[in-house]
Fold each of these.
Amino acid sequence: MKKSYKIDVDCANCANKMEEAAKNTAGVKDCVVNFMALKMNVEFEDGADPKAVMQDVLKNCKKVEDDCEIFL
Ligand SMILES: [Zn+2]
């Protein structure tokens, strides 16, 4: 399952950090962050609950970049 989320982040470097943090979150199969469009496309593992997984993704992204936001 794939879902797209609107994000807020200040630069391409931090967008990359968010992408890495999301990829390292349990339940996430793959993640691509598009800084120009301020969008995060997340592919979830089979059976993962996107709502629960995205709470962890947000937490992990805030760890690497506290000035970012994901609009869930
Ligand atoms: Zn930055």
Amino acid sequence: MLYIMTERLVLKPHTQNSLVWLNTTFNNPNEDYFNGDDPPRERPETLEETQKLLDRILNRPVDADIIDYAIHKRDTDELIGVGMIAHINHYNRRCDLGIGLGWNRDNWGKGYASEALQAVIAYCFTELGLNRIGAEIYEFNAHSIRLFERTGFRREGVLRQYIFKDGVFKDSYLYSLVKETWEHQKKS
Ligand SMILES: CC(C)(COP(=O)(O)OP(=O)(O)OC[C@H]1O[C@@H](n2cnc3c(N)ncnc32)[C@H](O)[C@@H]1OP(=O)(O)O)[C@@H](O)C(=O)NCCC(=O)NCCS
């Protein structure tokens, strides 16, 4: 079970209490990322639909190749974001990360995502014993590009014209951080 305490945050498993926050976030038109490369929504996602996703998260087997977590403020326990360690492959010792702050923009631009991401990276390399962490970021997601580059990820590839957004084909960038680079960065 993932439970990480940082200076200002607690990263911990979701509970049923995440439902309304998730639904509000998924239905926020600014949160493009959460809609991925699906067609634009024709109507808001219902609570029942979000509940199905939450049920999948809450009922994942312990040996699943994905770990979902909720990001809470330590002082108030407010839920401010979500993340996942996905595609965990223990033989090749790699995974992919996703992370997002939610609908409440008051929590953006305060370094919460950087703080959470740094902690999750350390967890992947030390607790899970992984060697490589990947991330895929759409070319227009400037906040996320800054977040991952600031945290030490390097761009290693481009999926050209990978997603169709607002009537235009857009690229998606592949990023990674490997353990030896992370260890080197920690020392310098
Ligand atoms: C990606 C995302 C999590 C980044 O959020 P963010 O608020 O920009 O990231 P952080 O929490 O690390 O905050 C960093 C910003 O806070 C500022 N900041 C303020 N106080 C800070 C502190 N104590 N520590 C670090 N940064 C601080 C930084 O200068 C930085 O500002 P800048 O981006 O203008 O340079 C957010 O945009 C998001 O949730 N997007 C939707 C989901 C998404 O796209 N996820 C990524 C998919 S790959």
